Description:
The structure is a single chain. This protein is of the alpha/beta class. It has a single domain (3-160), classed as 5'-nuclease (Rossmann fold). It contains eight helices and five strands. The protein has helices at residues 16-24, 28-39, 48-65, 74-80, 82-86, 90-99, 110-123, 127-139; strands at 11-14, 43-47, 103-106, 143-145, 158-160. Helix 1 crosses helix 2, helix 1 packs parallel to helix 3 (48-65) and helix 3 packs antiparallel against helix 6 (90-99). The chain is globular.
Amino acid sequence: MDIDAIPDGTLVFVDANIFIYHFAGVSDKCTRFLQRVLKGEVKAVVSTIVMAELIHRRMVAEAVEKGFVTLRNAVRKLKENPRIVKLLSQYSRDVEAILALPIIVEPITRDDIISSGQLRERYGLMTNDSLNLACMERLGIRDIATRDEDFEAVEWINVWKPDDI
């Protein structure tokens, strides 16, 4: 379903890729969605997993954009050269901008970890996706904003996607 069509007042779990496409400037729909969150038209929830993915991916993107590393070897080069990480700062400002929005950040609990195994077995999801789905299930959230098609296998959620990417 089109991310622009999320009804006002909906409680939506937001996947990391929505933020990534917004910051990369490749999806007006992701930007519009985040503007709706800012205005309080939709209520947004993320997990600590989503925030960790966002921080990591924005750090890598900044290092690549500044020419410090190539995309192919980015993570290895950053691990081998902590001085490069010290030169990066825009990714932190990006994350702070997201945290300034009225977004609820939910921790992943012990029970989420346990139930995520059953979700991986049932839906074939990767680890982070299954942890996020377990968090959604615990919180009673039935809507997710994501570009990840893997969530479409989950029959009890509504998957809202940007179709301009």
